[in-house]
Design brief:
The chain has about 270 residues and is α/β, with parallel strands linked by helices. The protein contains eight helices and eight strands; from the N terminus they run ααααββββαβααβββα. The strands form two sheets. Strands 3, 4, 5, 6, 7 and 8 form a six-stranded mixed sheet that branches. The chain has a two-stranded antiparallel ribbon with strand order 1-2. The C terminus is likely disordered.
C-alpha cells in the first residue's frame, strides 16, 4: 500500500525541484509550484480554477491594473512541461513525483514505482558485518551546506562504535545514476542497512535559539523502514559544529543499537 506523502516531504521535494536547472531562470514558475504545493497540502489535493491562480499568484506585481501578466492556463501548461522534463531527467529516480494532470490546475503527488537493483556491488570477502551505508541527507536550502558534514560525522561515530563496517556517505546523485530510489540503495551497495534523512533549519522565536532538525530513517536491505527518528539540536550562529556533533552522536547510537544482520548474504 502506497504511504502518503507528508507536508514536510512535499515541501522539501518542491525545493529540490525549484533548485534544478530547469527552473533556474523561471522565478514565476518557482512561485507557482510552491503555491500549488501549499494548496495541495491545505486542501488534500482539491481542484482549483485558473481564476483563483490569477487572483492569488499571477496578478501580484502586475501593476495597478491587478491583471495577470500571463494567463493562468498558459502558466500552468508551461509548469506542467517543466515538471515532465524534470521527471524525465534529474528526477527520474525521485521517491516522490509531482505532476499536473492534463486539463487541470492542481498538483498531483504520488510515490512512483522504483527500480530494484539487479545486482549488488559485492564487498570484499571477510568484510565485518553488519554493514551500514550512510546516505547524504536531503536538506532545505538554508541548511544544505550542513548535509554532507552531518553524514560524515555519523560515519565517524559509527566507526567509533565498532563491531561492523560503514560505507562512507553516498550522495543521492550516485544513487540516481543507477536509477534507484534511496530505499533500494542498501541492497545495491551490499549493505545490511542504510541511514538517510532530511535536514531542516528551524529559526528561533520569542528569544529561543535557532535549531536544526533531522528526520532520520533506518532502511534495511529489503527496502523496508525499520524505524524513524526525530532529532533537534539548538544551534548558536554561526557555529553549527557542536549541534552537528550532538546530532551525529544521537543518530549513530540509535543505528548501532538497532542494526541487525539480515542473514541473507551469500
Amino acid at each position: 500500500m502506497e504511504s502518503p506523502v507528508s507536508a514536510a516531504e512535499l515541501r522539501l521535494h518542491v525545493e529540490r525541484i525549484v533548485d534544478d536547472v530547469e527552473f533556474e531562470e523561471s522565478p514565476r514558475h518557482r512561485h507557482l509550484l510552491r503555491y500549488l504545493a501549499d494548496h495541495a497540502i491545505a486542501t488534500g489535493g482539491r481542484r482549483l480554477s485558473p481564476q483563483t491562480i490569477e487572483s492569488d499568484v499571477l496578478s501580484r506585481g502586475a501593476g495597478d491594473s491587478g491583471r495577470a501578466v500571463k494567463p493562468a492556463r498558459l502558466m500552468v501548461d508551461e509548469l506542467r512541461s517543466k515538471l515532465e522534463r524534470y521527471a524525465a531527467k534529474a528526477g527520474r529516480s525521485d521517491a516522490i513525483r509531482v505532476a499536473i494532470p492534463p486539463g487541470d490546475c492542481r498538483l498531483e503527488v504520488t510515490r512512483p514505482a522504483v527500480t530494484t537493483p539487479s545486482e549488488r556491488k559485492r564487498l570484499p570477502a571477510g568484510t565485518p558485518r553488519p554493514v551500514v551505508m550512510v546516505v547524504e541527507f536531503d536538506a532545505e536550502p538554508a541548511v544544505r551546506s550542513l548535509a554532507q558534514p552531518l553524514a560524515s560525522a555519523i560515519v565517524e561515530r559509527l566507526l567509533d562504535h565498532g563491531g561492523g563496517s560503514v560505507i562512507s556517505p553516498v550522495t543521492r546523485r550516485q544513487i540516481a545514476e543507477q536509477g534507484l530510489a534511496v530505499e533500494h540503495a542498501p541492497a545495491a551497495w551490499d549493505a545490511d542497512a542504510g541511514v538517510h534523512g532530511t535536514l531542516i533549519g528551524m529559526p528561533g522565536e520569542q528569544g529561543l535559539e535557532a535549531s536544526i532538525g533531522a528526520s532520520v530513517r533506518l532502511i534495511n536491505a529489503d527496502a523496508a523502514v525499520v524505524w524513524t527518528l526525530w532529532c533537534e539540536e539548538a544551534m548558536t550562529a554561526p557555529d553549527s559544529e557542536p549541534a552537528l556533533s550532538r546530532m551525529a552522536d544521537k543518530i549513530a547510537g540509535f543505528v548501532a543499537d538497532g542494526v541487525e544482520l539480515s542473514g541473507r548474504h551469500t
